[in-house]
Design a protein that fits this description.
about 500 residues; TIM Barrel; two-stranded parallel sheet; about 15% strand; Beta-glucosidase; hydrolase; glycosidase; beta-glucosidase activity; Glyco_hydro_1
């Protein structure tokens, strides 16, 4: 009997984001981004954590206070894990893990500090060229995200971010500079990270300062900004294919999977409606047009998207080459949620599933949900898929002997890898690769906490900026290394265990 493995050429690796690891927020010409004014938050309860809006919203007054402040404890994304000065060490560790690919993002404001300049910042381009070259020296293929939760701050303040149509041209100037510089070195590009998230955290994703708009108009503002991102994404696909025909461009969506809380028809219908909202954003980038669901929503809510004929044409003619997504948890939907427990997720809130365990942050653990998600996505789009974020955030403890036993993380990823294998071999899904989120500890996205750790590599840094920044291998390091060495065979004969 043949040994179980993943397909030849499967792309194993890890994923990070510039705003959560780099630091050096005002070094070598970088301008401030939305991430650099996001406050550290330390939720003391699941209820506090579930207040997604409070974790991600910001006002002009808060921005003014942030720009006056030099307190890195309040604004920890300004220091990250100092990857800017540790990238060689970090990439060497990724190479030791055996990475085939490394997904990371470019900070737009490191290339164009205010977003609207005409000439790129050479020191910013040189930094990313150094990172790319370092990866390639170890045989690691870069997967680069062009926009990952950090629009230039001045672009947001001066132009109202992506609500302003000028954003398309500003972004394309940035994209053209980056693609021309790195063509031939980067085979895989992603346009916007979790493009759907503009409705959940409009400031981080779209640079929208909600307090500038009336509540009645803000839904229109968000969808108009979203449209501008869709046009920019399609133009980016077109440009990359023209400049570097061998390169592949993907979209990236938050794969939120919901179950009906019960088999009541009204719960099933409510779940279907929620799932149509989830798929709508990816539909546009794959099929090149707005789905019926969104068209009906716009009509019923008097939302008037300003769209030109050229917008429609460029979107239709430039679909993405592959679909990438994040997957962390599932939750439930009910037509009437009164009295039902809620649970946190990836900047989302859902009804708690009584049949699933959860992490310390309340994210419900569901490997079968990953298989379900893979099948649904592949049946819907018939394009290659890539899981570019998946992992377990947990509080890791350094033992007296310096070791870190994170068996819970091993169990989590082990179970999800088995679900991936079943989706490929039992369901016929075409899965390109898997990049575990946060292969090295990094700052949490919405709360900027360091204590919520994902990595195979521990970074000696706490929530308040104290620590040596030393890198330490966890127990999961050698485990994941073996997974990659054996192309998954090391886990495929084992029985899954999911503990928290």
């Amino acid at each position: 009997m043949c040994k179980k493995t993943f397909p030849d050429g499967f792309l194993w690796g890890g994923a990070t984001a510039a705003n959560q690891i780099e630091g050096a927020w005002n070094i070598d010409g970088k301008g401030p981004s939305t991430a650099d004014v996001m406050l550290f938050r330390d939720p003391k309860s699941i209820a506090e954590l579930n207040n997604v809006h409070a974790n991600t919203d910001i006002t002009d007054e808060m921005i003014d206070d942030a720009l006056k402040s030099t307190d890195l404890t309040k604004y920890p994304k300004r220091h990250g894990i100092d990857h800017y000065n540790h990238y060689q060490e970090d990439i060497a560790l990724f190479a030791e893990l055996g990475f085939k690919v490394y997904r990371f993002s470019i900070a737009w404001s490191r290339i164009f500090p205010n977003g609207d300049e005409t000439t790129p910042n050479e020191k910013g381009l040189q930094f990313y060229e150094n990172v790319i070259n370092e990866c390639l020296s170890y045989g690691i293929e870069p997967i680069i995200t062009l926009s990952h939760y950090e629009p230039p701050l001045e672009f947001c303040r001066k132009y109202n971010g992506w609500y302003n149509r000028k954003a398309i041209d500003f972004f394309m100037n940035y994209v053209e500079s980056v693609i021309n510089r790195f063509k031939g070195k980067v085979k895989y590009w992603l346009t916007f990270n979790e493009i759907d998230s503009i409705l959940r955290h409009p400031f981080m994703t779209g640079g929208l300062i909600e307090s500038r708009f009336s509540p009645d108009e803000f839904q229109q503002v968000m969808y108009q900004a979203m449209h501008h991102q869709f046009v920019a994404s399609a133009k980016t696909v077109k440009l990359i294919h023209e400049i570097d025909p061998a390169a592949k461009v993907g979209c990236m969506t938050t794969k939120l999977t919901y179950y009906p809380y019960s088999c009541k028809p009204e719960d099933v219908l409510a779940t279907q409606q929620r799932m149509r909202q989830v798929y709508a954003f990816c539909d546009i980038q794959v099929f090149g047009e707005y789905p019926a669901f969104l068209k009906a929503k716009f009509k019923n809510n008097n939302i008037d998207i300003h769209m030109t004929e050229d917008d429609a044409k460029v979107m239709k003619n430039n679909p993405v080459d592959f679909v990438s997504f994040s997957f962390y948890q599932t939750s439930c939907v009910a037509a009437n949620a009164d009295g039902l427990a809620l649970t946190a997720g990836n900047t989302t809130i859902g009804i708690k599933n009584p049949h699933l365990p959860a992490s310390e942050w309340g994210w419900q653990i569901d490997p079968s949900g990953l298989r379900l998600s893979l099948v649904d996505l592949y049946d819907r789009y018939r394009k290659p898929l890539m899981i570019v974020e998946n992992g377990l955030g947990a509080k890791d403890v350094v033992q007296e002997d310096g070791t870190i036993d994170d068996q819970y993380r091993i169990d989590y990823i082990d179970a999800h890898i088995k679900a991936m294998y079943d989706a490929i071999h039992e369901d016929g899904v075409e899965l390109m690769g898997y990049t575990a989120w946060g292969p090295i500890d990094l700052l949490s996205n919405s709360t900027s906490q360091m204590s919520k750790r994902y990595g195979f590599i521990y970074v000696d840094l706490d929530d308040y900026g104290n620590g040596t920044y030393n890198r330490i291998k966890k127990k999961s390091f050698n485990w994941y290394k073996k997974v990659i060495e054996t192309n998954g065979a090391s886990v495929l004969e084992e029985k899954s265990q999911v503990t928290v």
